[in-house]
Amino acid sequence: MTESRTPERRSSLAGRLARLGFTDAARAERLLLDAEQGSAARPGDDLLDALGGTADPDLALDGLLRLLPSADGKGVGDELREALAGEPGTRERIIAVLGVSAALGDQLVRHPEHWRVLRDEETPDGSPRDDLLAAVGADPGAGEPVASGSGRETLLALRVAYRRRLLALAGRDLTGRADVADVAAELADLAAAALEAGLAIARADVPGHGTCRLAVIGMGKCGGRELNYVSDVDVIFVAEAREGESEDRALRTATRLASAMMRACSASTEEGALWEVDAALRPEGKAGPLVRTLASHRAYYERWAKTWEFQALLKARPVAGDAELGARYLDMITPIVWDAAEGESFVEDVQAMRRRVEADLNERTADSERQLKLGPGGLRDVEFAVQLLQLVHGRSDETLRARATLDALDDLSRGGYVGRDDAAALSSAYRFLRRVEHLVQLHRLRRTHLVPDDEDGLRRLGRALGLRPDPVRAFTEQWRRHAREVRRIHEKLFYRPLLLAVARLPGEEARLTPAAAGARLEALGFADPAGALRHIEALTSGVSRRAAIQRTLLPVMLGWFADAPDPDAGLLGFRQVSDALGTTPWYLRLLRDEVTVAERMAWILGSSRYATDLLLRAPEAVALLGSDSGLAPRPIEALRTEAQAAVRRYAEGRGPAEEAAAAVRAQRRRELFRVAVADLLGLADVRTVGDALTGIATVTVEAALQAATGKIETETRKPLPTRLAVVAMGRFGGHELGYGSDADVMFVHNPEPGADERAAGRAAHAVAEELRRLLSLPAPDPPLVIDPNLRPEGRQGPLVRTLASYAAYYARWSEPWEAQALLRADPLIGDEGLRDRFRALIDPVRWPDGGIDDDAVRQIRRLKARMESERLPRGVDRRLHTKLGPGGLADVEWVAQLLQLQHAHEVPGLRTTRTLDALDAAVEARLLDAEDAAVLAEAWCLATRIRGSIMLVRGRASDLLPNDHHRERSAVARVLGYPAAGDLLEDYRRYARRARAVVDRVFYGAD
Question: Which end of the chain has less neighbouring CB within 10 Å, N or C?
Fold first, then answer.
């Protein structure tokens, strides 16, 4: 084993060490020379070659040069050297351990005699349970083994025996003698043995332990027999009194036993601790009692447990203590677990679990990309997907109830719930990730799931996995490739088999039965699984290129539909749009190549009937989804240019006005879709949406006015004898239109000089009526109702008045409420000169010199109070009415309008038709406290957003928060960014309550 080394050969030694893989060959050479000078016990060529083949030759050499003198000191050095020289298997295992684990190298130095467990054909005596019980002085054959003591020496003996077993397992693991699944199972069995020995120590420490029976139930990776080298061990305790004993006394004793057992395993000693024993998965978590009876466990799980708790119980397994009691616990809990999976809340809970995992993935730390367990494409992704499939399909198929992830994955594949290729790819990735996790933890025997970020650590991992000649690059590439595979979990494991159930694809890949596919769709949140399967079949059946692309798209899109408020509507809408555009070459290519378009489309279709209807009427608008810039509202001038060009095109070609109006309404339909999508995706705020919808309506009415004028002039064969303007009123004039708002207007005309006034009036009336007709014709777009009822005398008055008639009316008959209505009048459309003159006419009426008097203020307050009591529909909860309810839109708007009527004559900033601008101006003029204005603005914005979202979700306008339809209520909340409807309701009530307090004080003058 020794070799003479002359000075002339030193440089060749260093070169050889470098070629063998030593990173610091000069240091390694010095260590070898020092060993040569100190003793004859130094490595020969065979051993050097073995060291060079390890994961970290430098680390292995350090460990070996410390082990040999320690073995000499214990009298086992010569035997060790002979084994290293003459037993290749022994040499391989010892050197492999030293090259990976500094911690196990330290253990061998402390206990050099332990090297024997690494010999050929050498295994520790007896089972792990018998070995560890004997180590603490307990009789393995006893019904309830009791340790010889509970002091320091016993704890040390347990740790030494445990690590001796761990060393033997590591030797087989690192030399390929044990598969990763077998290693994980043996680690779990070793942990169970340690728990049994810890319980024996506890019995030695707790007087009267015989009054109770105590079973330890392994959970998590321990229960599933897939434990890591260093991990918390999750447990649940169940106890019962022995015959003739008090239950209370027995439970107190069992609690002391459980606590003492946990301390025996986790206490720190000179030999370290084993690991933490974690009982937090018990009923009520850390807030609940540490130990319960069987009946208490049953009562909790039957009444209070959540789906995630039953998910955890998939791994439950008796591991220590009273075996018969543990078996009864398992018999009791198994049917409850699977009965619970049939519960009403199962779908919601599964979806919540999916969202929680995705949220965890999105809230990564700076180290997330290095996380083997929780990082993207990590172990948790695999485990969660497998458990989710077990929960969905294991309800009816008992063959899917395996505890271990890899076993469950095999069962899912054999049962046809997962394709064979998919299962093989995921199994390979999981095995790789678990092996890397084992190597990372073995290095220092510390609980970690982080891939090293230093070159040496990555090199050690790569070499341990047999990756040469560039281990860092090869490991990184292989790790990233597996992580990418795993990140397709929900596509590969949860969604694609749904297609195979119905698509009649060629090949031998296993398919889900219709019943199993329906169960999976139900778990995803589809209310009509059978209907969803029909849609999937229609989209994917056949051998056409279209069907092939759909088979690629749908696995991903089904997940996105499941994340939307209404998955059924999303899938139906997708089928309808695909049917409309299926032969269009760019459509499927766009969805396939632009992930953003497909994801946004799934969310829109599954969230909004309004946007879906718009898209179905103009499917080509799907192209707008590709970028944020494409969803930005277009400037009004650009819209006006396009609309006027369409009207001119038909006018010049002598086309009918109806065709011109149809072209303009098609433009409106496209622009409404653009704004609705921007709103649903959170790309447009309240002001932006209101401005955009007002601009679209303005251009539409303007173009319709142009078409109507052209038609009347054609019919009369002469120019219109009057100038005409349209005055926007209400939300239209306030630039605050919603998706379901009517266009409140007034028509004003002014006869041309010398024209007959009656003839001019008839012509203006004909144009106004034609405008309304053109915009009310049946068409594939949401109606734009022209409502002229805010005109003087309302429905009893003429539809169109001259400017002089308006002047006379406002001078003689105008009421305070009409002046208030004029606050939102904005002459937007028609003859520019007439618009300016109308504006000059009404300004003194709405912004009277000196402000309105006290009598007018009282009238406005009385009118507001009467509206609150009379205009609300019967039987509705006024607190949920976003327009007329307390703290709703009307409350905020009347505060702003009262301040305008009182002070706009002296505060130019108040001369605006917009509510929020008026509030800002009132604050600037110190007429309104900034905090009060903020409260009012927040309430107004939330109410406006709620009204808009109701229209988007339902496709029908409503001022009332939905409270009787769970899916619609939840959908509105989700569209607004709330996790649940209760959160939205709580927010709205709080905002409205605060706003109403301001209204009472500022508008009504309450103290």
Answer: C
This prediction has a pTM of 0.68
pLDDT digits (tens, 9 = 90+) for 319-356: 999 999 999 999 999 998 887 766 666 656 765 665 66
Strands 233-241 and 277-278: what pairing? parallel
Residue 624 and residue 646: Cα distance in Å, rounded? Answer: 21
Q: Are 269 and 157 in contact (CB under 8 A)?
A: no
CB 825 within 8 A of CB 913: yes
- Which pLDDT score is estimated for 357? 57
Give the pLDDT of residue 506: 44
CA-closest candidate to residue 941, choices 921, 964, 914, 965: 914
Q: What is the dihedral of CA 90, 92, 94, 100, to 10 degrees?
A: -160
Q: How far apart are CA 94 and CA 54, in angstroms?
A: 10
- Residue whose pair of structure tokens reads 């169970």 in the numeric block: 192
> Residue 734 in contact with residue 671, Cβ under 8 Å?
no
Q: Phi, psi at residue 796, to the nearest 5°?
A: -80, -20
Torsion angles phi and psi, residue 749, rounded to 5 = -135, 165
Residue 722 DSSP symbol? E
- Which residue in 951, 945, 943, 960 sits closest to 611, CA to CA? 951
CA distance 705 to 666: 16
When pLDDT is averaged across residues 484-495 and rounded to a whole number, the result is 70
| Whether 219 contacts 315, CB under 8 Å | yes
Average predicted confidence (pLDDT) for the chain:
90
Nearest partner of 811 among 757, 848, 765, judged by Cα: 848
**Contact 860/817 with Cβ under 8 angstroms?**
yes
- Name the pairing type of β-strands 743-751 and 786-787: parallel
Q: What radius of gyration, in Å, describes the C-alpha atoms of the chain?
A: 39
**Which of 791, 780, 790, 698 shows the shortest CA–CA distance to 736?**
698
**Residue written as token pair 């649903």:** 680
801: nearest Cα among 745, 734, 732: 745
Q: Pick from 382, 377, 376: which is nearest to 362 by CA?
A: 376
Task: Name beta bridge partners: 293.
Answer: 239
3-state secondary structure at position 754? coil
* CA 288, chain centre distance (Å): 30
Predicted pLDDT of residue 508: 40
Task: Give the whole-angstrom CA distance, residue 688 versus residue 736.
Answer: 9
Strand-pair category, 212-218 with 233-241: antiparallel
Distance (Å, whole) CA 85 – CA 391: 54
Runs of H (alpha helix) within 747-815: 757-776, 803-812
Cis peptide before 469 (omega within 30 of 0): yes
Q: Which residue has the tokens 């084992």?
A: 438
Lowest mean pLDDT among 57-66, 291-300, 337-346, 479-488: 337-346
Contact in structure between 729 and 824 (CB atoms under 8 Å): yes
Q: Per-residue pLDDT tens for 405-420? A: 999 999 988 887 777 7
CB 462 within 8 A of CB 474: yes
Q: How far apart are the first and last CA of the chain?
A: 100
pLDDT over 70 (residue 921):
yes
Cα 110 to Cα 77, 513, 623: the distances in Å are: 14, 59, 70
| CA separation, residue 821 to residues 520, 827, 897 (Å) | 56, 13, 9
Q: What percent of the chain shows pLDDT beyond 70?
A: 92
Average pLDDT on 809-830 reads 91
Condensed to tens digits (0 to 9), the pLDDT of residues 15-34 reads 888 888 899 999 998 888 88
Q: Tens digit of pLDDT for each residue in 679-721?
A: 999 999 999 999 999 999 999 999 999 999 999 999 999 999 9
Q: Are 250 and 239 in contact (CB under 8 A)?
A: yes
pLDDT beyond 90 at 816: no
